[in-house]
Amino acid sequence: HSVKRLKCHEIRPAAACGTDTCPLVKIKNGAASVEYEVVLSGAEGGETTFIVTGRPYYDMHGKLSGIVETFQDITERRRVQAVLDGERERLDVTLRSIGDGVITTDPEGRIMVLNKIAEHMTGWAMEEAVGRPLEEVFRIVDEDERRPLESPAAQVLRSGKIVDLVSGTILLSKDGRELNIADSGAPIHDSRSEVIGVVLVFRDITLEKKIAQESRRMDKLEAIGVLAGGIAHDFNNILAAIMGNVSLALMLTDSSDKRHHLLSQVEKASERAKNLVQQLLTFSRGGNPFKTLSTISDIIRESAEFVLRGSNVKGEFDFAPDLWAVEVDKGQIGQVVQNLVINAVQAMPNGGNIRLSCENFSLKDSEEIPFAEYANSERYLRIIISDDGCGMPPEVSSRIFDPYFTTKEKGNGLGMAVTHSVIRKHGGHILVDSKPGEGTAFTIYLPASKKSAAAVAENVVSVLDINGVRQGRVLIMDDDELVRDIAVNMLSAAGFETLNAVDGAAALEIYRQAAASAKPIDVVLMDLTIPGGMGGAQTAAELLAFDSRAVIIVSSGYSNDQVMANYRDYGFKAAVIKPYNMQELVSTVGRLIKERAS
Q: Per the confidence metrics, is the pTM higher than 0.70?
């Protein structure tokens, strides 16, 4: 390019001429040097980019007589810079679009780049993190032992190889969050294959881990359920005989008699055995909820007050006035509340407060849904039970619902596992939030019923005064002689006439014969499961085909299906769960006879 005899404004932007930005003006005003960039068009086309540096030129008297300008061709540098800028932009777009966290370091393990995902997961902004050692920003600990783990950058720089994090790694975010992560670190090589840094790619697997834990937990519960199912039927039959005979013996002894007190102790022990079996059954497919339309606030209050009675812990209740109705197994949900309250009381040996609240929770009105991946309803009741106790460390709270896991010297590890299983079988969800020294809060979500709360009152059946009904014929069908005999004895003692059968075929024959006589049968009590014979469901179907007005009660201590939970679907008018006492059996039979007569 020839610039000889060109005016200065002919080789630099004319807009600067005569202004304060003009290089000549700057030097005239005392600047020691000026530098600017100029693009010139060549004679053969094309453009060349120069950096022009101007310095003052003084004569022998020290007077400014001119400017010396030097030109440096930076066209190639600008081209390379443009390429690098494009690559940097593409890299930036790539990092932003990657769903994993990405961090790069220099050879000393100091952070150079974080993408947005990494910023969110670590809690560090890019401008804060750059230049810091990786281990200061990317803080990781072992999930179980809580010990700090070595920085993956240090491992990569030491070995020069790709490194994967060990399983069970927790990332401690700057804002206090803890995330389960999986990651890998790889060396960054230059053109000479020298390691010049590390790239770390990591992702949040907290949800995946929770789902996997949930699956393992349910597998354990299923295994326990199989075991429970194997013994529950026979054990409940034995308990039914014990409890029934004790009920009869109590009727025959005066309350002042010492034997009456001893029998009462036997009855209490039998109730404890019954509750233990029911907890085991809750794990199994046979422990399906026996649901009725209910008011949840009543269940919560009654269950909590029962546990708190006589303790130094106070219960604080806060129930929304417009709570939706729920369809739940009152006994099972009551057991859940009692389990949680018992734990809270034990966590506060010196006394304290337990807060129990309940409110409506609608998915469509909520931005944050902690169980979104499991949601199976739009409306829930949210129950929160919290305390001011000692709290739990993460390694305990993460296993709190595991079967047989306990931190108590005399605990059996079933209470919280039962709680979890009950809530899941109700289509609900339970979450725990606890920190050492800060107490514990359990949050339960139960699906709301589509029926109105007003329908609950209509669903309530008043307790029958069994002394008011002393007539009626009852047929008892049960393959177990002990259970059959005790049912006969209890109903006979209450004034009913009884007949009995060992299986469905015999029961059908007796019912048909009675129907042909002048003394038909008023109520049939059927055992659901008859090994090797016709059980309750099949017998009920055939009996109703013969007499559509037949009044049938189903009874069972265990079932592999949901007949007990949905007994009306099979034509039964009521259900009694073994082992039952005299009050339960006689009250149910008497109520049905009274309804039949009306």
A: no
